[in-house]
Amino acid sequence: MAAIEDLSNSVRRSTAPILSITRQFYPFDTEPCTLTHFQGQDWYHGTGITPQTHPASRFPVLFSDLCSSVCGFCASPQVLVVALQTCVNPMSGDLYYDYEIVCQTCGGFTAFAYAEN
Ligand SMILES: [Zn+2]
């Protein structure tokens, strides 16, 4: 299995899918972006969709992060979102989200995890 490197508290990279959702589904996905209930959460996953057209872009903070995401290997902005989940904390109302991108330039995977504060 390909190594996963931590680039920061919120960013990881690997030459192979990183998150459980992409490890399980990405090799078999045929649609660009579908919604699946997985490990207790609703996950968007698929062969990849541009950040600008991802359905979860209705969240302004998330949309801003998605659209500014670059590859963890080559810093290319030519990326596709292959997995994404959002979760609103029922107590605080904070938005949490995780997503993973694949680079169209070098093929590397980068995963991001954020909590809105
Ligand atoms: Zn790249």
Architecture overview:
- This protein is mainly β.
- It has one domain (19-115).
- Helices cover 13% and strands 39% of the residues.
- The chain has helices at residues 20-25, 60-68, and strands spanning 5-6, 11-14, 34-38, 41-49, 79-88, 95-103, 109-115.
- A seven-stranded antiparallel sheet has the order 1-2-7-6-5-4-3.
- The longest helix has 9 residues, at 60-68.
- The mean pLDDT is 94.
- Bound molecules: zinc ion.
- Zinc ion binds at residues 71, 73-74, 76, 103, 105-106, 108.
- Residues 71, 73-74, 76, 103, 105-106, 108 line the site of zinc ion.
Shape: globular
Tell me the number of helical segments per DSSP (H or I, 4 or more residues long): 2
Count of DSSP E strands? Answer: 7
Let me know the largest β-sheet: 7 strands, antiparallel
Can you describe this structure in just a few lines?
This protein has helices at 20-25, 60-68; strands at residues 5-6, 11-14, 34-38, 41-49, 79-88, 95-103, 109-115. The protein is mainly β and 117 residues long. A 7-stranded antiparallel beta sheet has the order 1-2-7-6-5-4-3.
SSE blueprint:
Elements: E1 5-6, E2 11-14, H1 20-25, E3 34-38, E4 41-49, H2 60-68, E5 79-88, E6 95-103, E7 109-115
Antiparallel strand pairs: 1-2, 2-7, 3-4, 4-5, 5-6, 6-7
Zinc ion binds at residues 71, 73-74, 76, 103, 105-106, 108.
